[in-house]
Amino acid sequence: MTRPLVEVRDLKMHFPIHAGLLRRQIGAVRAVDGVSFDIREGETLGLVGESGCGKSTCGRAVLRLYDITDGEIVIDGKAIGHEDQNSLRHVRPTMQMVFQDPQASLNPRMTVARIISEPLDEHTKMSGAEKRARVLELMDKVGLNPTFASRYPHEFSGGQRQRIGIARALALNPKFIVCDEPIAALDVSIQAQVVNLLEELQDELGLTYLFISHDLSMVRHIADRVAVMYLGKIAELAPRDDLYAQPLHPYTQALLSAVPEPDPAQSDNQGERIVLRGDVPSPANPPDGCNFCTRCPAVMDVCRRIDPDFREVTPGRYVACHLYDPEHGGTAPEQTGGANPGTAQARTGTYPSTQQGGNP
Amino acid sequence: MPSGDRTVLEVRGLRTAFQTRSGSVYAVNDVSFDVKRGELLGVVGESGSGKSVTMMSLIGLLPMPPARIEAGEVLLDGEDLLKASPARLRNVRGGEVGFVFQDPMTSLNPVFPVGFQIVEPLRRHMGLSKKAARDRAVELLELVGIPGARARLDDYPHQFSGGMRQRVMIAIALACDPKLLIADEPTTALDVTIQAQILELVHKLRDELGMAIVWITHDLGVIAQIADRVLVMYGGQVVEQAPVRPLFRDPRHPYTRALLKTIPSVTGERAAKLQVIEGQPPILGAFPTACPFRDRCPLAFERCHAQNPAREVVAEGHDVACFHPSAQGAEAVA
After folding, report:
1. Which of A147, A311, B212, B295 has the fewest C-beta atoms under 10 angstroms from its C-beta?
2. B85 to chain A nearest CA, in Å?
3. Which ranges carry the ABC transporter domain (chain B) (predicted)?
4. What is the DSSP secondary-structure string of B219-268?
5. ipTM score above 0.95
6. CATH classification code of A4-230
7. Which of B248, B262, B267 lies nearest to residue A264, judging by beta carbons?
8. Does any domain span residue B153?
9. Which residues of A fall within a CB distance of 8 Å from B245?
């Protein structure tokens, strides 16, 4: 098995809340509260969830755009969880980001050529002519007409602007790209163009993506494995086909059944729709026990007391839910044949720790 | 229902243009449709296809100038709203026609409690006393499923979540028993689980109150869930109209067909590669003399560049604006 390119263990990102005359800290917004996952080289991990669940914060924290509260991050064999911003500069070329809103993430006063070559100015010693050649090559690669290099972002449509953002992310030959809702701001007919471009680039350059989105149908298309986030934690992580065919966590089940099916014939056999009651609790004040217990249709007593571990219930499938935890009267899902979840890994609970342990 | 298929709204040949420094921009071209009592008409289209401008033209919500309605009739129960006086339109808006906008945060006034905002149309249009209006407001909030309605009347919009705010907007739109509810992308800003709650609510309200609903969205999934009939708009025109099932089973316009193929689904087959519609949506400009989809259409031929197709009936309740024979029911080529 290929070694994971990205390893995240127990990542926490808490934002302090200050109040009162002395601005004392009175609490924290637990935007990301103990998240673990791996992304293998050349793979796309989809990260889905509703707004406010912490998926974007998670993506930004993995790239160390924040100083994280706790946890470990290893990218391409280098632990970057607690590096200071100066030493991070040397790692940044391997990890890049494509942002949601191409209007807001492109400087309106810079030409396309300057936007795309900015990472080159910062991280390479290329000559002007070399940079120019690289910019044109990148524009061509993402399907932008190179003759538009001296135009400004406002002269482009939404889909083209997103291509500029992608070209900028590719400039330094990164291995890992966090795509934070890259298609959310685009029209339906343009979304498919951008998703196909991301897939072609992945095949050609062997890129690894963390694809953050709230669009479950698009994630089904692009991701190899999918992590479902709820209120700062991963509820379920599984290979794509398993997750969509047989969601285990009650939240994943509800989320999938809430997606309107664009085919009336299909929606007839979609079965009974699970409509969740209520809203997502505040991440500043999450409920005791399982954080989904306030809305869960299958809630049990134990859920209100004990926070379920994020366990591997069948090979490659992780769920944080007491329904699948034998210790709390749950049952393992059918596919396992009964015996598998009793492996040492599953017993100890949680995700296996990184090979590195601490810093190498 | 006694008047089950009575037409509530009839729009004929609506044409709206905006005056700009570089000439007129035709945002809505000869749009015609009707909605019956108890019917939910879905309007789909990409941004810039003219869906919102059409609906705003109906009840005089566009600033004029720069907007100008050049032609058409908008008949609400037989009364032409385009000829109505501003005072009459003020009575129609919020009274006979309710409106729900996309973003519940920007369409509620942040400095007034929600109770005040629901009571306002009740006092203005129905002439209720303060007390009666407050009671009615509580009923409305209960109707849209806000728990503890009476206690929440004096809360401000920021104290509600997005889904709850959209419920408040729906309550305001429903306040005066409208004949027609126009909902402009009402769930686009919401999460899917909250969207499912709102869709369920609208279904229930339509069945209980029997009003006509026009639901604008770009999400074909939502349309498939709730609409009875669908209007597909492209480049300021209606390119296809059909009852919901025939539209998804047998789409005739090349744009509708392509649009249905570009959308991945959470069930069903997973395509290895997404189909794309090449090119960009059209930039609206002078009055169109050719098919707006011609540059992106795989089936376009000379006639499409020379003439703008009119809508022709191809089956019962199903019409399409396309010259290609496959749209008329001949075997599809592509």
Report:
1. A147
2. 37
3. 9-260
4. -HHHHHHH-SEEEEEETTEEEEEEEHHHHHHS--SHHHHHHHHH---SSS
5. no
6. 3.40.50.300
7. B248
8. yes
9. 264
- Tokens 């008949």 sit on residue: B75
| Strands, E assignment, B21-85 | 23-36, 40-44, 67-76, 79-80
Q: How far apart are the C-alpha atoms of A350 and A74, rounded to whole Å?
A: 18
Contact of A157 with chain B, judged by CB distance below 8 Å, is answered with: yes
Please give the angle made by the CA atoms of A19, A22 and A25, to the nearest 5 degrees.
45
pLDDT in tens, chain B (334 residues): 444 578 889 999 999 888 888 888 888 888 999 999 888 999 998 877 888 888 888 888 888 888 888 888 888 888 888 888 888 888 888 888 888 887 767 788 889 998 898 898 888 888 888 888 899 899 888 877 777 788 888 888 888 877 788 888 888 888 888 888 898 888 777 778 778 888 888 888 888 888 889 999 888 888 888 889 999 999 888 999 999 888 888 888 888 888 888 877 777 777 777 777 777 777 777 778 888 888 888 888 888 888 888 888 888 888 988 888 777 765 544 4
A255 touches B: beta carbon within 8 Å = yes
The answer to whether residues B19 and B140 belong to one domain is yes
Nearest to B183 by CA among B104, B242, B250: B104
Any domain includes B232: no
